[in-house]
Amino acid sequence: MQKAPAYPLITHNTYFSIWSFNDTLNAAPTKHWTGKDQSLLGFIKVDGDVYRFMGKEPVIYKTILPASDEVPWECKYTETAPANGWALPQFNDDSWATGTAPFTDDKTQAKTLWTTKDIWVRRTFTLDNTNIDRLFLKLYHDDNVDVYLNGEKIFSNIGWTSDFELIPIKDEVKKKLKAGDNILAIHCANTAGAAWLDVGLVDMVKQKPNANIKLAKQTSVEMNATQTKYKFRCGKADLLLTFTSPLLLTDMDVFTRPISYITCKVRSNDGGRHNIKVSIGASSNIAVNKPFQEVGAEMFLSGKLSILKAGTIEQPVLKKKGDDLRIDWGYMNMAVLKSENAVQYISHSNEASDPFPSRVINNTDTIKGKGLYLNTILSFGAVGRSFTENHIELGYDDIFSVQYFDIQLKPWWEAEGTKMEKVLSRAELEYPLVMRKCDVFNRSMYQDAVKAGGDHYAKLCVLAYRQSIAAHILCKSPHGDILFLSKENFSNGSINTVDVTYPSAPLYLLYNPRFMEGMLNGIFFYSESGKWKKGFAAHDLGTYPIATGQTYGEDMPVEESGNMLILTDAIVKAEKKPDYAKAHWETLTTWANYLVKAGLDPANQLCTDDFAGHLAHNANLSIKAIEGIACYAKMAEQLGKGPEAVRYRNIAVAMAGKWMKMADAGNHYSLVFGNKNTWSQKYNLVWDKVLGLHLFPQQVSDKEVRYYLTKQKKYGLPLDSRKTYTKSDWILWTASLSNSMYHFKALTEPVYKYTIETPSRVPLSDWHETTTGKQVGFQARSVVGGYFMKMLVSKWAR
Do residues 42 and 55 lie in contact, with contact meaning Cβ atoms separated by under 8 Å? Predict the structure, then answer.
């Protein structure tokens, strides 16, 4: 049994990304990487017995009092402290203003702009029926909040939420609700940062479980680069369930299709023959941002396929930007071959406990509702000891993927006008070929990783592969250039962040440098178009999915300029020609000159580890600047610019000599120049080896690694001397500094231990606490592509 913090099921991009957060697939609903339910349900019928092997029947909520994500609502409010008794039903609020929710300081989303510290709200509502199963307060607050129902405080919290949370209300409080008029009163105090207030009430409907449905017994789960495989014992039958997202970086045709396969293999396990059917359902919540959004679903035939399709009625294409968001435009698709005689139908969530209905009504009308399910029943007939196989396809057509400055860009696969039905048909036709290609790639990648760093290192690379890729979207720029744009998942939601690209780079440099170009092209265009006017590289292109210019509040001049120079040189090395550098030489020269001026002893500015705060005289950041200058010199030489190459190489060599004196702290090198009692991971030093820069003698790396081994904690090497938390991607880079396999494994084994023991059950977090293994922040980010650094070193540093 292979262990992971969470298990990837469907992984294509930051919106089409479904995971199991549990070791057992049928223990809980499957989720989007953000943690919101995106339910996949799986049942198997063996003769007359039904077993659930995937997901869990959905919890059904009924709205009692809608929040503004369903309908705008009006109330009375004041921003001046009211008199005592303001929360009581009989309080006279005639002098208060009338406003519409949400109340926020975000001008792009506010129905009522709230910019003061405090706000008091009174929302009156009428109930015809108080027959409620279980009452929940639906609340989005930023920051501190107190909530009253009919004058009695029912909830209080210091802090904030970044979205609606459902808060259970005690039965004795529920009894305070009455037929007729009721009032919710809320005080919210904005202590810092953003401001938000929105509220509603919902009923969790009591459901009668289907006693005839049993739980399948999961016997194993295994992962490889492109697949997650489960085995189940289902009474007298065995089920092998494989999720394949064929993200083959070496095969653009296959890679660009947003299509995953769910493959079912069944057999008898008792020697007899059994009639077997498998039902797979996918919730329309895969195509919404909030579960209360109304969707439309339909079934139709296209060529050899039967297809189910669902999407929101509203279709607000590219109308939202931010971090904790899901897509609510475009259409999810479930397809199966007509020749397989599968049964497809659309159902409501309250019908999930009946996965094999005796009668299915199929028509071509669009069905509307909330939380619908697209269902496919695969009939295997009478099955004996040999495995019988069938599969379905899940795909997503997002219509437009990003706003790129003045133009909405279609996904790569649709740039030439290709329709989703054609993509589904081709993916179905090539299913056997794609599965063979995945098998070859899976084995090759794993073997190469084992050779580079051992079995546990290879398992880390498996964990990282699909996660890193699926934190990007692939598009074609208006000029025909590849754009492979990342999202800072659960970080700040930025799009195409340079210091997220930087740690991700090893994976893409190994397998296809075109993707690396796609990560840099947008940043180069931003500068070369004149839209970015500063003499160093930008931090980002905006907030996902709106790429119209940097939205991060502070620049990282040395960080991002060094990143762009180093990665451009890495592309040149991977492609064995300097063409990419030549195309951007003027911009690269500007950035190199900035580093010459400001890079040796950086001022008090942010680096990629911005969560740790500002830091002047940052020794690791200085290494990046020095190596960036050396990369510029190396590219100049390849472009036949001899004098420039010599000049900048001499500058870099001189700076490296100064660095070794400035950072020398005896048995290690310091975190900051001038303070020998500090230390930090010098992960930037790895490019000296990878790119053959030869600025620093190997003794520098060896001294650092020996020192790091004295500072390790149970779950890894801390980032630096200030805190005990770490970044696992940087540990993998730091471990690659050593030429000793023993030292490499000594530094990386605690990271592997973290991945199998962390109590934080989310898609792999790259920021964790080394003492407890708990997630500190971030999850599902692309930076884990940096785990492939050891493989890159093994391939390039010869």
Answer: yes
Q: Which residues, 6+ apart, have CB-to-CB distance to 492 below 8 Å?
A: 323, 543, 552
Complete DSSP assignment for 4-64: -SSEEEEESSSSSEEEE-SSSTTSS--EETTS-B--EEEEEEETTEEEEEES-PPP-EEEE
* Tokens encoding 669: 């090198």
Give the mean pLDDT of the chain: 96
Amino acid (1-letter code) at residue 241 = L
Q: Return d(Cα 759, Cα 397) in angstroms, integer.
A: 35
Closest CA to 4 of 789, 791, 784: 784
Please name the residue ranges forming H helices in 454-538.
455-469, 498-511, 513-528
Cα four-point dihedral sign 576, 577, 579, 584: positive
Helix, strand or coil for residue 77? strand
Q: Is residue 362 very low, low, confident or very high in pLDDT (cuts 50, 70, 90)?
A: low
pLDDT recorded at residue 416: 77
What is residue 395's predicted lDDT score, i.e. its pLDDT? 98
Tell me the pLDDT tens digit for each residue of 411-469: 999 977 899 999 999 999 999 999 999 999 999 999 999 999 999 999 999 999 999 99
Is the Cβ–Cβ distance between 530 and 538 less than 8 Å?
Answer: no
Q: Alpha carbon of 260 to those of 28, 30, 246, 256, 431: distances in Å?
A: 21, 16, 7, 11, 10
Nearest to 754 by CA among 734, 732, 736, 786: 732
CA–CA separation, 74 and 100 (whole Å): 4
Highest-scoring range by mean pLDDT, 105-114, 175-184, 452-461: 452-461
CA distance 122 to 74: 9
* Main-chain dihedrals φ then ψ at residue 559, nearest 5 degrees: -55, -60
The closest of 696, 676, 677 to 686, measured between CA atoms, is 696
Q: What is the pLDDT of residue 583?
A: 98
Contacts of 743 (CB under 8 A, 6+ apart): 705, 709, 735
Kindly state the average pLDDT of the residues 780-794.
Answer: 98
Give helix 513-528 / helix 585-598 axis angle, nearest 10°.
Answer: 80
Residue 159: count other Cβ atoms within 10 Å of its Cβ: 10
Residue 108's pLDDT is 85
Quote the CA–CA distance of 222 and 364 in Å, as a whole number: 39
pLDDT at 370 exceeding the cut of 70: yes
Q: How many other β-carbons are positioned within 10 Å of the β-carbon of residue 339?
A: 9
Contacts of 19 (CB under 8 A, 6+ apart): 6, 7, 8, 9, 11, 30, 31, 32, 33, 763
pLDDT of residue 287: 98
The neighbouring-strand residues paired with 264 are: 241, 390
- Characterize 252-274 residue by residue with b for buried, 16 or more Cβ atoms within 10 angstroms of its Cβ, and e for exposed: eebbbbbbbbbbbbbbbbeeeeb
Percent of the chain with pLDDT over 70: 99
